[in-house]
Amino acid sequence: MSYLITCAGSKIKPVEFRASHPLNLFLGRELYEARETIQLKAKIVLNWYYCLPAYVLYSGKHSQIYSQIDELNFLNIDTDIMILSALFGWIKPLDLIPHYDLRMSDKIDGGKKVWQVWKDLNILHKFTGFTDIDLLSGDYRKAIINNPATVPDVVFKGYGIQKGRWLNEQLKVNI
Predict the structure, then answer these.
(1) Full residue range of the structural domain in which residue 96 is found
(2) Helix/strand/coil (H, E, C) string of 156-168?
(3) CA–CA distance, 129 with 3 (Å, rounded to integer)
(4) Which of 147, 148, 169 is nearest to 68 (CA)?
(5) Helix residue ranges per DSSP H, the chain
(6) SS3 10
(7) Within 13 Å and on the Cβ side, how many CA atoms surround 112?
(8) Other beta carbons within 10 Å of 71
(9) CA 156 to CA 163: how far, in whole Å?
(10) Could you give the C-alpha distances from 169 to 27, 119, 173, in angstroms and in order?
């Protein structure tokens, strides 16, 4: 079972040399072409020499979900979180990624929204299952054709703080 969450618009910019490569990401080979497609269509240049773990990069000053989750939960090897990044698709919290600026609602490729391009690529759903817990927001959920994951029977208000707190409590069970 994986918890599916979105990336965050509020990011920390890496300042120390910490190199990675797209093939080092979760599903590196499986999503490589799709990631390249999105990056080219969005005209994004990445610096793979300056990376941070995804959970750190996404914990910027205005981060909602990530600011509510204890770092130990991200570091716990039993924690199963899949992050849906507008640029990289599915990644894991410990994946080293460079800074970028892209949302699922951004328009690329002649006016298509990023979520539409991911949907057209028809690949994200292949890595989710019925036992997964869907905590995605609207445009991120739209990127996945026939997402089999289960949306929890909880009403979340706001932009992610409540989801983050709820997820943190669920993850504490694994510690």
Answers:
(1) 3-172
(2) CCCCCHHHHHHHH
(3) 11
(4) 169
(5) 32-42, 54-57, 71-75, 114-121, 138-142, 161-172
(6) coil
(7) 13
(8) 12
(9) 6
(10) 27, 31, 7
Alpha-carbon distance 96 to 18, whole Å?
Answer: 8
Give the number of other CB atoms < 10 A from CB of residue 39: 18
User: What's the total number of domains in the chain?
Assistant: 1
| pLDDT tens-digit map of 115-174 | 999 999 999 999 999 999 999 998 999 999 998 999 999 888 877 899 999 999 999 865
Helix 32-42 with 114-121: angle, nearest 10 deg: 150
Strands 96-98 and 89-91: unpaired
Q: Is 96 helix (H, G, I), strand (E, B) or coil?
A: strand
Alpha-carbon span 125 to 149, nearest angstrom: 9
pTM: 0.95
